[in-house]
UniProtKB/TrEMBL annotation:
<dbReference type="GO" id="GO:0003962">
    <property type="term" value="F:cystathionine gamma-synthase activity"/>
</dbReference>
<comment type="similarity">
    <text>Belongs to the trans-sulfuration enzymes family.</text>
</comment>
<dbReference type="GO" id="GO:0019346">
    <property type="term" value="P:transsulfuration"/>
</dbReference>
<protein>
    <submittedName>
        <fullName>Cystathionine gamma-synthase</fullName>
    </submittedName>
</protein>
<dbReference type="GO" id="GO:0030170">
    <property type="term" value="F:pyridoxal phosphate binding"/>
</dbReference>
<feature type="modified residue" description="N6-(pyridoxal phosphate)lysine">
    <location>
        <position position="188"/>
    </location>
</feature>
<dbReference type="InterPro" id="IPR015421">
    <property type="entry name" value="PyrdxlP-dep_Trfase_major"/>
</dbReference>
<keyword id="KW-0663">Pyridoxal phosphate</keyword>
<dbReference type="GO" id="GO:0004123">
    <property type="term" value="F:cystathionine gamma-lyase activity"/>
</dbReference>
<dbReference type="InterPro" id="IPR000277">
    <property type="entry name" value="Cys/Met-Metab_PyrdxlP-dep_enz"/>
</dbReference>
<dbReference type="GO" id="GO:0019343">
    <property type="term" value="P:cysteine biosynthetic process via cystathionine"/>
</dbReference>
<dbReference type="InterPro" id="IPR015424">
    <property type="entry name" value="PyrdxlP-dep_Trfase"/>
</dbReference>
<dbReference type="Pfam" id="PF01053">
    <property type="entry name" value="Cys_Met_Meta_PP"/>
</dbReference>
<dbReference type="GO" id="GO:0005737">
    <property type="term" value="C:cytoplasm"/>
</dbReference>
<dbReference type="InterPro" id="IPR015422">
    <property type="entry name" value="PyrdxlP-dep_Trfase_small"/>
</dbReference>
Length: 317
């Protein structure tokens, strides 16, 4: 959790300084100390990117101004005529990028239930260049076989991207299971305090990393140094928070499953969950996200949300 954050060489500060400079002095044109302009690179962002790469087990980390910015930047590695195969349960902002932004640019996408590997194989086309999954998914908490899908992707010559926001590297590391890229909304568990909007990409693919670095600078959807500092601060307690949140989620899911007003509970830690066994194999714990269905439909669900006392009715997690 402290990777990429050695003591500051100038002052000895043990916390990464927030370097707010937008530009950096050069001895002569093109000769500098590693930084020239904060869109291209910043010491605080560099520390965060090194930390993100380390905790996901990758060689290259990239920080962005939001999870959607990270997704959009990665999708810009594709070309018109390419095809993306996506899981059928993804964050709404990701679907919006696939359907409303990339499709008009000539990049097609298809969504399928990736719980069945044969379905994944049959959905591939000669133009498929990327497979995009979340696991656990948002919001139905489906579990997809990362290693199995990675094998299919590599045989087809496609990149496998895993949005690891819900699990975090504390619970699973997709690169270790064969994925090419890990994506995050650092807004969520990594920061953990609901005071930052950010995103990240991590990979060990050198050629892809070179292209992403170019696009990160060219498109410019980078986070501020202060936001980078806040995410670094949040990551320091990630392990402790995830352990407690997983324990709390397991208790709450069990209580919900027994409640007469609840029709269904989606939580991979329950033995009744379709992905329970797979989650036990590829995750260290089933996570801290729960979705459930109350009996009575939308009117009852709305009244339930209006009467919450401990949880806030708010977006994000």
């Amino acid at each position: 959790m402290h990777a990429g954050q050695p003591p500051d060489p100038t002052s000895g500060a043990v916390m990464t300084p927030i370097v707010l400079a937008s530009t950096f002095a050069q001895e002569r044109p093109g000769q500098h100390k590693g930084f020239e302009y904060s869109r291209s690179g910043n010491p605080t962002r560099k520390a965060l990117e090194a930390c993100l790469a380390a905790i996901e087990g990758g060689r290259h980390g990239f920080a962005f101004g939001s999870g959607s910015a990270a997704t959009a930047t990665l999708l810009h590695t594709l070309r018109p005529g390419d095809h993306v195969l996506s899981g059928d349960d993804v964050y709404g902002g990701t679907f919006r990028l696939f359907d409303k932004v990339m499709r008009p640019m000539g990049i097609a996408s298809t969504s399928v239930d990736m719980s069945n590997l044969d379905v994944v194989r049959k959905a591939l086309t000669p133009a498929t260049r990327m497979i995009w999954i979340e696991t656990p998914t948002n919001p139905m908490l489906k579990i997809f076989d990362i290693a199995g899908i990675a094998e299919i992707a590599r045989a087809h010559g496609a990149l496998l991207v895993v949005d690891n926001t819900f699990a975090t590297p504390v619970l699973q590391r997709p690169l270790d299971l064969g994925a090419h890229v890990v994506a995050h909304s650092t807004t969520k568990y990594l920061n953990g305090h609901s005071d930052v909007v950010g995103g990240a990409l991590i990979t060990s693919e050198d050629a892809l990393a070179e292209r992403v670095a170019f696009l990160q600078n060219a498109i410019g959807a980078v986070p501020s140094p202060f936001d980078c500092y806040l995410v670094l601060r949040g990551i320091k307690t990630l392990g402790v928070r995830m352990r407690q949140q997983c324990a709390s989620a397991a208790l709450i899911a069990g209580k919900l499953a027994e409640h007469p007003a609840v029709q269904a509970v989606n939580y991979p830690g329950l033995p009744t969950h379709a992905g329970h066994a797979l989650a036990a194999r590829q995750m260290r714990a089933p996570g801290a996200m729960i979705s459930f269905v109350v009996r009575g439909g939308l009117p009852v669900a709305s009244r339930f949300l209006e009467r919450l006392a401990i949880f806030s009715c708010a977006e994000s997690l």
